[in-house]
Amino acid sequence: MKPNTTNPSDLKIVALAGGVGGAKLADGLAQIMQPENLTVIVNTGDDFTHWGLNISPDLDTVCYTLGGLANSVTGWGRMDESWSVFEQMERLGAEAWFRLGDKDLATHLERTRRLRGEEPLSGITRDFCRRWGIRHAVLPMTDDPVATMVDTVEMGELAFQEYFVHQRCEPTVKGFRFAGIDSARPAPGVIEAFEKADAVVICPSNPWVSVDPILKILAPLNPPIFGENGGKILVAVSPIIGGKTVKGPAAKMFAELGIEPSALAVARHYGSPLLTGFVLDTIDADLSEPVAGLGIVPFSTNTIMNLSDNRRQLAQDVLNFIQRLL
Ligand code: GDP
Q1: pLDDT tens across 166-215, in order?
Q2: For the whole model, what pTM was predicted?
Q3: In whole angstroms, what is the distance from residue 6 CA to residue 23 CA?
Q4: How far is the CA of 21 from the centre of ligand 1 (A)?
Q5: Which residue has the CA at smallest separation from atom 19 of ligand 1?
């Protein structure tokens, strides 16, 4: 259905996001879209407890980025962070492989307190966003517990943060399991956001561990949101540029699973009919033809979002592309 608008920035969009790559594009979209037109749905499969605290790394990366609070150098945590508690915890012998700064700790302390009081993660996130001045909607994919498990050659099955942070993504990946996914329901607001959306954007996040858990939660929904009978336009932006990731293990995961890492491999991973369109980096423009061969409309542009301006420009390019597909 053609939306009754000529300005792509007035489209209603749901963006699916993991951490770093997801947060950057969400920030670009938030720069050019009215709050009521954008909902960001964030992976919670990486969530875990550490020092007795509930930590939601992807949700926090997205919120800190949208709130202008993020540490853009590390890609995680808060800017202008201090480490007093962490240093004292280390001195007391607490596990120190996952670094938690003082400002970041406040988020986890208050989230944990409220979760223990039976408040849902989605409600807590909404309230935190309001207090951080974030006007666009950010929703966890679910309020139910889901735990991404990474099956590895050397160490067997590892909880995600154990693999990602403690083992620095070094073990060879054999596969993934999302514990709890079959009984996890979409968080309140997720289905409503899809219902009113003109299109869905898969941000350049890790397909295996950031986006797949979100898609798996949505897959059983009836009526379906995407695919042959779902009717929504779905466009993904490649997290793999020139065969490499900007950050993180996505390319390494493709290779270890026996798939040559490339933007084309990402397009194939999501596949048609799920994907309507696929955004590749200009340096991968030669992959446009094979992407089109999958029955997916390709579009190439600069997808490196190292600056705020690049984020906004990519977001605008993605919206213009969607407008042409509608
Ligand atoms: P994580 O949960 O923190 O690992 O974050 P995500 O899954 O959201 O993001 C990881 C992916 O983001 C990696 O595959 C990166 O290649 C990709 N990424 C990070 N920055 C950029 C960028 O500026 N442009 C593009 N296209 N991808 C990016």
Answers
A1: 999 999 999 999 999 999 999 999 999 999 999 999 999 999 999 999 99
A2: 0.96
A3: 27
A4: 3
A5: 21
